[in-house]
Amino acid sequence: MAPTATTMTAAAATGARKGPWTEQEDLQLVWFVRLFGERRWDFLAKVSGLNRTGKSCRLRWVNYLHPGLKRGRMTPQEEHLVLELHAKWGNRWSRIARKLPGRTDNEIKNYWRTHMRKKAQERKRSSSPSSSSSSGSNDSSINEPPSEVLSSEKHETDSIAEENSPLISGLELDDTDGIKGYTMDQIWNEIAASESVSNLSFEEYKEAGSASCSMGCPPLMATASPIWELDCSGSLWRMEEEDMRMLSPMPDLLVSNCQQSRDSWKH
DNA sequence: AAGAGAAGCAACCGCACTCGC
DNA sequence: TGCGAGTGCGGTTGCTTCTCT
């Protein structure tokens, strides 16, 4: 399919703003998303007065402003789960993210890239201290590790998942889905050797990590931005663009509240 | 204290898919 | 049935922050 207006450098084509979002933009976006719901991003971008593409708005919302998002470091349980799921599904980040409440595909992707790169480097260093060749081109092995290894590892992770994790065992695991094989055993070995937590079973992970909460109910959920806790009437999607002009502007009180919330959320 | 390099992360890009007309 | 708008996804880039020397 030919690129659409939205995909073809829409920001450039429309003169829309790019780059980091400002606090004011965030507030505006939150306000209008609460008003209209998480749909029709192009329309929302237009009526909100944000000089952004709908795509940009959606991304900002999904990755940063969405209620329930967890911030901060991955917990050991989450790290473990990411490794397991990546071993099964490969780079299906959104799919993996669905199994980690409060985490976004982008976050998991970033996590994987940085941490697995580190693991790969460490491993390379320990396994072949003399070989200085084969440079950073191994980056590809981070996302697409060689295919020859995982077969045995896959079974191991599968059994972990299926025996120890009700969360995973309930999944519909498509065998043809991204299990082409990865050098996860290398990664796993690294982790097992370097991290004491690896001595725990996945069940123990869960218990240690959240006495009060299972993976489905992350303990850090409370750190999500409180902006969304503000009450707001339901979706107003039936409204026409004409009606939009009649809407009252964002109340000053809301703005200041949101700003305070956001500040405290950041720190 | 300052500079360099590494790490972390937000955001953009382009492709593919879905759905309504 | 074809087309276009809207949306989702994975890959990539580049800026900011951190750490080391």
UniProtKB/TrEMBL annotation:
Q: What is this protein's name?
A: Myb-related protein MYBAS1 isoform X2
**Does this UniProt record's set of keywords contain Transcription?**
yes
Q: Which Gene3D superfamilies match?
A: Homeodomain-like
Q: Where is this region: Disordered?
A: 108-173
The residue ranges of the Myb-like domain are: 13-65, 66-116
Main location class: nucleus
Question: Which species does this protein come from?
Answer: Canna indica
| Compositionally biased residues, Low complexity | 127-141
Name a GO CC annotation attached to this entry.
nucleus
Purpose of the protein: Transcription factor.
User: What are the protein's UniProt keywords?
Assistant: DNA-binding, Nucleus, Repeat, Transcription, Transcription regulation
Where does the record place it? Nucleus
